[in-house]
Amino acid sequence: MTIQEFDLPARWRSLLTEHFSEAIHNVQMSWPEKQSLDVSYRVIESFDPDFAIDIVEHPELNTQAANTAIGLLLTEMGAGNIVAFIRIVDLPPDCSRTVRQLRSEDLGLMISVEAIATRISGVRPRTYEGTFECVACGHRTRISQPNEQELIEPVECFEIDGGCSRRKGQTRFVQRIEESILIDSQFIELQEPPENLRGGIQPERILCIAEHDLAGKLNPGDRVTANGMLFVRSQRKSGKETPIFDIFLRIHSIEREEIPLEEIQISDEEEHEIKELARREDVYDILKQSIAPSIFGMNPQKESLMLQLFGGVSGKNADGTRVRGDIHILLMGDPGVAKSQLLSYMSEISPRGRFTSGMSASAAGLTAAAVQDSTADGRWTLEAGALALADLGLAAIDEFDKMNENDRSSMHEAMEQQRISISKAGINATLSTRCAILAAANPKSGRFQSVSEVPFTNQINLKPPLLSRFDIIWLLTDEPQQDKDKMIANHIIETRMSATSELLIDQGGATDPSRKSNQAGVTKHAGLHIVGRDLMRKYIAYAKRNVHPKLTEDARKSIVDFYVETRRKGGEQTDSVAITARSIEGLYRLAQASARIRLSDEATIEDSNRAIRLVSLWRYDLMGEDYDETTINSGKKGNARNRERTIVEIVRRLTLETGENALLIDVLNESEQLQISRDVAEDIIERLNRDGTLFRPSYETLSTAR
Asked: Residue 451: pLDDT above 70?
C-alpha cells in the first residue's frame, strides 16, 4: 500500500507520541549535547509494516516528515528554538550492502553499509538555505541548496517577489551569510573491511557526506554501520559533464560496533567444535603447530605467537588509566630465517590482521596522514594507517627498523597508550590503535655479529625506548648446524614438492589446496594436527569476546617471586638492572593469553610458568645468563661499561694525587695492569673524549669533566 506524502507527518507524529514521548523529553533536556533521537526500524515495523516499507523505499520524504514531526512536538512542549533530528537505526538484513555490492538500483533507497572509516575531512559549514541580495535593487531571495558541491544562485531578481526583474547577466547576486542557514558538513571515506577480501583484491571505497550532528562523530579506523541514501553526481571532464556518475552516500545514521570482533560470525556447531578443541590436553601443541606449518621448527617462537593471537585482557583503573592487554613481539633475525613468512601468516590468521612494511608504507604510513583530497574541494582529510585499521586485531610490520622518522616518533604512543594523537593541517583527532604488534627487523651490517662489543639490540636501527615496548624480543640467527640444517633442507624440499602449480589453479586444472585447508576444522598433515585458518580465526574471536581471565594467587606469587629473584641476581653486578617493572605486565599478559586458549576464566600457576619460561628463554637467547636492561638502554655491554668506568676512575685518582692533569702514559700503564690492553684503552679514551666525559688539554694529558 502506497502512503501519500501529505500523510507522512501525521504517521510520524503518531509513532513518536506513542513510543518515544520520554525520549523526546530527554532530547529537550540534553540539547545541544544530544541533537537527535534514534528510532529502531523494528519499532516502526511493529507499529505499521506498510509504513516501515515506505521508509526504506522513500527515505528522503520520510526523513523530512520525521524531522518536521519532532519539531512540532518540541514546539508544543515549549522548546520551539530546538532543532532535532530523527535517526533510523537497526535496518533489516535485506537493506544491508557491502561497498562492492552497491548498484544503480540502490539509488534512492535506504541502505545499510558495514565498513571502516579510512579518511575524514575537517568539519566545515555548508549553505543549507542561502539568502542572496541583488546588487542593483537590494532585493533578497532565498534558495535551498540540495547540492553540497555546487552553490545555486538566483537566475533572476523576480518582480513578482518585489525585485527589479533583472536577470543574472544584468545584475550580480551576493550571498548574505548572516541571513543564510548553515549546517555542519563533513566528507567521510568508507572502505569495505579487510576480512571480506580474499586473494589480494583491492578494497572498494565510497565517499560519504555526514551533516548536522553526525559531522565530527567518526575517526579514521572506526568500524561502523552507516545507514543512508545513495545519490549520484556526474563526473566532469574538460569542464563538461559526462554520462558516468560517481556514487555518494548521504549518511542518515551511524551505528558503532559495540561488540569486539562482531564481524566474525560463529555458528552453534563451530562454537561446540571450539569448546571441544579447548578441552583437549594437547590444545597448546595443536595451535602451535597450526602457525605457519610450512616453516620448520621455531617452536618457542611459534608458542609466543600463539599467545599473542589470543592476547591478555585490556582494562581501565579507577583513576582512569588504561592497562594494555595486547602482546607486542619483535623478531630480530638474519636474512632468510622466514621472518616475513611468519608475519604474513600471522596477519592472515588473526581477526582484523594487517600486513605492512615499514620501508614501503604509503603516505598514511603506519599511523595516520593528512591528505589533500581532490574529490572534496581540496579539503584536508585524515587518512588512517595500518595500526588504526588493525584496531582490536594484529598489525604485522616487516622492515620495522626502516620506517620513516614521523612514524617512528608516533610508535611510542601507539604501542603503549594504544592511541595516536594527530594534529595536522588543522585536524585534531585521537585514533585508537588497540592492536598487537608483530614486528621484524634486520641487522644494520647484514648479519648479526655475536663476537662484538656492540649488543644485538644495538645492531639494528631501533632506539632503546621503542625496544622496551616489546614484551618478547626473539633473536633468530642463521648459524650452521649439520643435523638441523639437514632437517630444514628436507622440510623445505618436501613442502615444495607437495605444492600445487599456481598456473594450473588459475586455469582450473587443479583445486586450490589452501582453500580446502582454510575451511577444514582440525586435520592431520605430515603427522601434525593442524587447525584450519577459518576455525583458528573464529577460535581467537570467541576467546577474546567471552573469556577474561584473572590470575590465581599462586600464579600471581610465582610472577612476583620471579621478578624479585631476577632483580636480586642482577643487583650483584655494578651498574646493571636485570629486569624492569614493565616486564611484570608482560608476564601478566602472557599468563592471561595462556588461560584464554583453554577458555578458562582463571590463569593458574601453569599459565604463569609458561609465561616465565618463554620470557626466560628469549632473554637467555638475546644475552645469555647475565641479561642486562642497561645494555639495551645504553647500547654497551656490561664489560665495556666497566672498562670505561675504570679508566675514568684512573684519570680522576691520578689528578687528585698530583694536583695536575693525568699523564696519558700513566693512564695506559695502569690500564694494562687491570687487563685493559693499550689499544683498547686508547679507543675508550678517544670515545670518552668525544662524549665529553674526559678532557684532553694536550695529547699527553687527560682530565675528567667537572
From this structure: no
pLDDT digits (tens, 9 = 90+) for 414-447: 888 888 777 766 666 777 888 899 988 888 877 7
Where are the extended beta strands (E) located within 268-404?
Answer: 315-316, 322-323, 329-333, 353-357, 368-372, 380-384, 394-398
Residue 603 — φ and ψ, nearest 5°? -95, 115
Tell me how far CA of residue 130 lies from CA of 124, 166, 178, 231, 361, in angstroms. 16, 19, 10, 22, 44
DSSP state of 475: E
DSSP state of 325: -
Q: How far is CA 40 from CA 16, 20, 123, 196, 399, in A?
A: 12, 11, 27, 27, 47
H/E stretch holding 175 reads strand 173-175
Q: Are 156 and 168 in contact (CB under 8 A)?
A: yes
Cα 186 to Cα 249: distance, rounded to the nearest angstrom: 12
The grid coordinates of residue 195 equal 576480512
> What predicted TM-score, i.e. pTM, was given to this entire model?
0.71
Rounded to the nearest 5 degrees, what angle is found at the Cα of 24, between the Cα atoms of 19 and 30? 145
Measured between alpha carbons, how far is 204 from 584 in angstroms, rounded to an integer?
A: 43
Contact present, 127 and 180 (Cβ < 8 Å) = yes
Whole-angstrom distance, CA of residue 269 vs CA of residue 266: 8
